[in-house]
Amino acid sequence: MPLSDVQIQTLARDAIQRAASGDFATAEPLLAQVAEARPNSGQALHLLGQARLKLGRFAEAREPLERAAKFLPREVAAHVNLAGCLTVLGEYEAALAALDRASRLKPTDAVIAHNRGHALEALGRVDEAQRAYDEALSIDHRLMPSLTARANLLAARGDWVGALADLDMALTNRPDDAALKLRRGELLLRQGDWLRGLSDYEARLELPGERYAPDLPRWQGEPLSGPLLIYPEQADIESEAARRDTLMLARGIDAVVQCGALLAEWLDVPTIRRGELLDGFAAAAPLRSLPHLLNWAPTSLPPPAALKRTRDAGATTGWFTSRTPPEGLAIERDPAKVAQCTRVVGDDLWPVHLAAALGLPTVMILSGREDLLWSPRETPPAWYPNLELISAENSERLAARLAQ
How far apart are CA 399 and CA 404, in angstroms? Predict the structure, then answer.
């Protein structure tokens, strides 16, 4: 039975009141009834689409929002909300078309310009995306999403100065934003600027995530009345990242190293397993905080932690990369036999760090995704004196080195 005008008005009023109070779950079916009764009402369709967006039902929101945009061609919000829905659904071309319509209606809206940049970037049209972010920031020079997005684009292009300027502006607005601090720290470290970058990099500890921390006070570099525990912050202590961090960073301080069973067999320093009682420890520090806490510099680092085993005579090359080894080369892929190799070639993996710590001639291939503490690339700091870094992008040098 069709609803009367009074019933439709009552439903609409009730739905709007519920939506205004944040009760979108109850408002949505009421708005669906109104839209069904008034299928040509752009406002009813728009409200229904918005409620479904709030509920995270993006696929269901698309149809009423598309219809609303047709019935409300001069309504900026109708096109913007449709674009937001399409963006979440990965329909970037359609989202861009909706944003272009919104931009023509309101050409000086910084948020619309930013959203156009986001859609263009998703489509791989980075030059146009940067121009859109430029436009957004010319309207509102403090617009946070555009500052961070443009910083990432500029950093990807190697424009470190421009990227850092945008992040500095963003942090002027939000000086306590841990994510922004961490991003700035990462960019600084990529350039080898430890003096400024290490402090910002500590902001990672303020962000949520699967990160381990023992139930001990966090050491900040102060004198202690008891032993110090240093530990990998990864949740899985036997992970590739945890083993690599332990080999690379457990150095330069009198402390007990919390590590997995595998590395405990190699390290000639006091160790403790994760899960063992921590009675008597005065404080703890994550391994990745040591460069900051101990004021390390990339050109002057403490020697690696002592190992129980030494290199043995052998005739094989340790090979720890998916690259095909040169023909006829006798290779070894077992990390347990690293000490028996004459040299080691590999990616930024823990067996390669083990080989370098053992003093073996070691070649590490950098892919662009390796640890940020290796910066600047192909200019190795003093982590291991016998380590050679080669970028995978430097194909000529890499091929010549691997052929030797």
Answer: 9
